[in-house]
Design a protein that fits this description.
The complex is a heterodimer. By secondary structure, chain A is an all-beta fold. Chain A is built from no helices and eleven strands. Chain A is globular, with a radius of gyration of 13 Å. Chain B is mainly β. In chain B, the strands form two sheets. In chain B, strands 2, 4, 5, 6, 9, 10 and 11 form a seven-stranded mixed β-sheet that branches. In chain B, strands 1-3-8-7 form a four-stranded antiparallel β-sheet, with no helix packed on it. The chains are: A mainly beta, B mainly beta.
């Protein structure tokens, strides 16, 4: 099974900061990775697919990069509405098995 | 617009059964694979099951294999999750989520339904 290691598990930052979250896969997954944002009591929302493609309607301050085993989500200038929990997801396995990272809780400093 | 609405959650005793439904609208349901994803209270996300657009293939997480069954009725635009032999560790919010053809899974999610397994 492919394991996803996400770091950090929590992060304190201020409005306007640049923030980076990392996911590492236990084996190569090409670019079969997505990033999701979840606010308390709400369903997750997809931000990035195929490692670096921005989901329609998502602000351009969000960006993704990486391929193989190392991936990053960057928020270029934090806005108040960005404080949430973020998850990576790999979908490279066959037969289909989907693995989320442990999550990163982004809090206001 | 795409809408996914789950129902059927509730409180059930250990060893009991429950069936969840997910009503889909705003897209051609019969053309897309569908998933169930769950989240235990205060915990992260866990993929549960996937069914292909025509129901021809189904896949499960090891944690639910042999106990849960995913199915769909394309004539009713509805996805199901039959959950048997429920355990306390199955307590979670269950979300249905849509797949895409080429651009990865979970582009749209429902609001979730809470399943509590407790005596």
């Amino acid at each position: 099974d492919i394991q996803m290691t996400q770091s950090p598990s929590s992060l304190s930052a201020s409005v306007g900061d640049r923030v980076t979250i990392t996911c590492r896969a236990s084996q190569g997954i090409r670019n079969d990775l997505g990033w999701y944002q979840q606010k308390p009591g709400k369903a997750p929302k997809r931000l990035i697919y195929a490692a670096s493609s921005l989901q329609s309607g998502v602000p351009s301050r969000f960006s993704g990069s990486g391929s193989g085993t190392e991936f990053t989500l960057t928020i270029s200038s934090l806005q108040p509405e960005d404080f949430a929990t973020y998850y990576c997801l790999q979908h490279n396995s066959y037969p289909p098995q989907y693995t989320f990272g442990q999550g990163t809780k982004l809090e206001i400093k | 617009q795409v809408q996914l609405v789950e129902s059927g959650g509730g409180v059930v005793q250990p060893g009991g059964s429950l069936r969840l439904s997910c009503a889909a609208s705003g897209f051609t349901f019969s053309s897309y694979g569908m998933h169930w994803v769950r989240q235990a209270p205060g915990k992260g996300l866990e993929w549960v099951a996937f069914i292909r657009y025509d129901g021809s293939n189904k896949y499960y997480a090891d944690s639910v294999k042999g106990r849960f069954t995913i199915s769909r009725d394309n004539s009713k635009n509805t996805l199901y999750l039959q959950m048997n032999s429920l355990r306390a560790e199955d307590t979670a919010v269950y979300y249905c989520a849509k797949d895409t053809h080429y651009y990865g899974p979970f582009d749209y999610w429902g609001q979730g339904t809470l399943v509590t397994v407790s005596s």
